[in-house]
């Protein structure tokens, strides 16, 4: 079954588009990546996709509409570039872009306007995967553990370094997963102060020294003492992390180094606490050599960085897979992970 996965993360680097072929035999799923590409957002769209709590209802609806059109245009360009006929696809599965995530208040909102995609391509579109789970009392996140369990089960744990670090692993014959801490959402923002989109291989952070006072304040944030299921959003970082960094009075290299140390401490605390033997790391942060070195120095867990396609497109693969499961009316959200009362099949289908 051929499906396209569309994924936009909080790091705002661009739209991941991944064409996959999924097969199932005797309950065992397999996949292949046929074509994949990340299309960068221009500065105007990066600004529009950055959370702005002062938008009016009209402005928010216009943003959702415009972003749906953007997704359609980006996907059309991808299909034309690779000589792919949209009619050869079984479905398009779009995560959209998380603009607001406050599950404790019963809200989560992903931009992306599925009807616009369906109208453009006239093939089934699956989207809006999170709201049903939040309505059921879950966190609406993390969602990728269904793919970790069914597609990447050979790894004891899967850790993704995007805007946030989230981990997924088997525990007591069920799946456990949760957000650990912010990563690129903060590191990229700091790197931009020096004129860079991100901290290439962690070279900027490696120039600084750890500030123990800021490090302690970051590590003492109450979120880290909360039990899972739990998830993070941009709002939490804006309210809790950025003020600590901005008020520290430190130079930019010290800020980057201290934040990188904070990530390494929080990640290895989880790896060591749950005695995880091996862990596959994906997402843009997998290329942060300085961060990976720090993590390896603080744990005996075997850290595995897979091939480039998996590092960069694993989440897009899994959202394509979630669309396939939803189309087949199979569970694609794990209740023990999100905190929902039971696993369920989530996502709105336009067809």
UniProtKB/TrEMBL annotation:
Entry coiled-coil feature ranges: none
A Pfam family matched in the record: AnmK
Gene3D superfamilies: 3.30.420.40
InterPro entries documented for this protein: Anhydro_N_Ac-Mur_kinase (IPR005338), ATPase_NBD (IPR043129)
GO molecular function, one term: phosphotransferase activity, alcohol group as acceptor
GO biological process, one term: amino sugar metabolic process
Record-linked SUPFAM superfamilies: Actin-like ATPase domain
PANTHER family listed in its UniProt record: ANHYDRO-N-ACETYLMURAMIC ACID KINASE
Protein name: Molecular chaperone
Organism, as annotated: Owenweeksia hongkongensis (strain DSM 17368 / CIP 108786 / JCM 12287 / NRRL B-23963 / UST20020801)
């Amino acid at each position: 079954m051929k499906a396209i996965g569309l994924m936009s993360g909080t790091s705002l680097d661009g739209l991941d588009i991944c064409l996959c072929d999924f097969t199932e035999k005797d309950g065992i799923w397999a996949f292949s990546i046929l074509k994949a590409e990340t299309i960068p957002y221009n500065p105007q769209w990066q600004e529009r996709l950055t959370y702005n709590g002062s938008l009016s209802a009209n402005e928010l609806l216009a943003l959702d509409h415009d972003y749906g059109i953007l997704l359609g245009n980006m996907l059309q360009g991808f299909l034309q570039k690779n000589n792919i006929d949209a009619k050869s696809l079984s479905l398009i599965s779009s995560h959209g872009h998380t603009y607001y995530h406050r599950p404790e208040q019963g809200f989560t909102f992903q931009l992306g306007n599925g009807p616009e995609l369906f109208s453009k391509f006239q093939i089934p579109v699956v989207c809006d995967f999170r709201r049903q789970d939040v309505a059921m009392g879950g966190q609406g996140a993390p969602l990728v553990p269904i793919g970790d369990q069914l597609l990447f089960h050979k790894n004891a744990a899967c850790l993704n370094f995007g805007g946030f670090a989230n981990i997924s692993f088997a525990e007591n014959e069920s799946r456990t997963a949760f957000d650990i801490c912010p990563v690129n959402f903060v590191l990229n923002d700091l790197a931009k102060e020096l004129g860079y989109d991100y901290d290439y291989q962690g070279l900027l952070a490696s120039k600084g020294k750890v500030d123990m006072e800021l490090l302690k304040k970051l590590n003492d944030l109450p979120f880290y003492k909360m039990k899972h299921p739990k998830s993070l959003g941009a709002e939490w970082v804006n309210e809790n992390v950025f003020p600590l960094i901005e008020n520290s009075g430190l130079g930019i290299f010290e800020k980057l180094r201290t934040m990188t140390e904070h990530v390494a401490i929080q990640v290895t605390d989880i790896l060591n606490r749950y005695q995880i033997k091996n862990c596959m790391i994906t997402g843009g942060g997998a290329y942060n050599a300085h961060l990976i070195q720090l993590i390896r120095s603080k744990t005996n867990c075997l850290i595995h960085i897979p091939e480039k396609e998996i590092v960069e497109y694993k989440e897009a693969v899994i959202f394509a897979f979630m669309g396939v499961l939803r189309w087949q009316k199979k569970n694609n959200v794990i209740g023990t992970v999100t905190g929902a009362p039971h696993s369920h099949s989530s996502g709105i289908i336009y067809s």
